[in-house]
């Protein structure tokens, strides 16, 4: 495959949907394609142009081989349509909204993937989850606990962004960490700098 899979991760409430919306136009101008996720709860699709299906429909699609990637998290099922393989084979870069828990399995299928982890301060994350009103306080605490477990259990390698650090070339297997605790536009700018530097979407 000639294209590069850009794998955006982050806990629920970290602002992935907002980042995807804000960065979509400039990334598409760089030749990136955006994969539309299939999710088993329509409320999760708000803000990210996802397709909400029933659990039975998801199982049928999965059984028919409709997904290049699929996983379960927080009681939901997520699928990435297999059309991304056609885009990658055609030399196009593809950005997907992925899962931290499924990262290593995805790396096995797509060794050239470039992983980006969106993180926010836990207090900010809790506030965002409460504000959106999708989960009960107990479910929110479960999400926060899962986020802490994945953060501690991951072998992450933060990389310098434009104008920061030593400027060492990024390894294809590294995970870049982006802090989204501040203004969204700042995160968008850093993401675009990162992708320009690594020539993911040049």
From TrEMBL:
Claim: Nucleotide-binding is one of the keywords in the record: yes
- The enzyme's E.C. designation: 2.7.4.23
One Pfam family in the UniProt entry: AAA_18
Task: Write out the catalysed reaction.
Answer: alpha-D-ribose 1,5-bisphosphate + ATP = 5-phospho-alpha-D-ribose 1-diphosphate + ADP
Instruction: Tell me what gene encodes this.
Output: phnN
What keywords is this UniProt entry annotated with? ATP-binding, Nucleotide-binding, Transferase
What this protein is reported to do is described as: Catalyzes the phosphorylation of ribose 1,5-bisphosphate to 5-phospho-D-ribosyl alpha-1-diphosphate (PRPP).
**Pathways per UniProt:** Metabolic intermediate biosynthesis; 5-phospho-alpha-D-ribose 1-diphosphate biosynthesis; 5-phospho-alpha-D-ribose 1-diphosphate from D-ribose 5-phosphate (route II): step 3/3
Family, as annotated = Belongs to the ribose 1,5-bisphosphokinase family.
Which superkingdom heads the taxonomic lineage of this protein's source?
Bacteria
Entry-linked PANTHER family: GUANYLATE KINASE-RELATED (PTHR23117), RIBOSE 1,5-BISPHOSPHATE PHOSPHOKINASE PHNN (PTHR23117:SF8)
- Organism, by scientific name, is Ectopseudomonas composti
Query: What are the residue boundaries of the Guanylate kinase/L-type calcium channel beta subunit domain, all occurrences included?
Result: 2-199
Q: What is this protein called?
A: Ribose 1,5-bisphosphate phosphokinase PhnN
Q: What class of enzyme is it?
A: transferase
List positions binding ATP.
Answer: 10-17
Q: Which InterPro entries match?
A: GK/Ca_channel_bsu, P-loop_NTPase, PhnN
**Keyword check for Transferase:** yes
């Amino acid at each position: 495959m000639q294209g590069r899979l850009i794998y955006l991760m982050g806990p629920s409430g970290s602002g992935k949907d907002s980042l995807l919306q804000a960065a979509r136009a400039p990334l598409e101008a760089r030749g990136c394609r955006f994969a539309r996720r299939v999710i088993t709860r329509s409320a999760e699709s708000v803000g990210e142009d996802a397709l909400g299906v029933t659990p039975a429909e998801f199982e049928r699609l999965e059984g028919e081989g409709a997904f290049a990637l699929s996983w379960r998290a927080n009681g939901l099922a997520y699928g990435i349509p297999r059309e991304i393989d056609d885009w990658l084979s055609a030399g196009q870069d593809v950005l997907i909204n992925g899962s931290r828990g499924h990262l290593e399995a995805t790396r096995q299928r797509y060794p050239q993937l470039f992983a980006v982890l969106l993180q926010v301060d836990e207090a900010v994350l809790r506030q965002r989850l409460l504000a959106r009103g999708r989960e009960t306080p107990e479910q929110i605490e479960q999400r926060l606990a899962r986020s802490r477990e994945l953060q501690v259990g991951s072998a992450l390698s933060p990389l310098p962004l434009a104008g920061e650090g030593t400027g060492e070339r990024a390894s294809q297997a590294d995970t870049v960490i982006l802090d989204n605790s501040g203004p969204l536009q700042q995160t968008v700018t850093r993401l675009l700098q990162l992708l320009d530097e690594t020539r993911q979407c040049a």
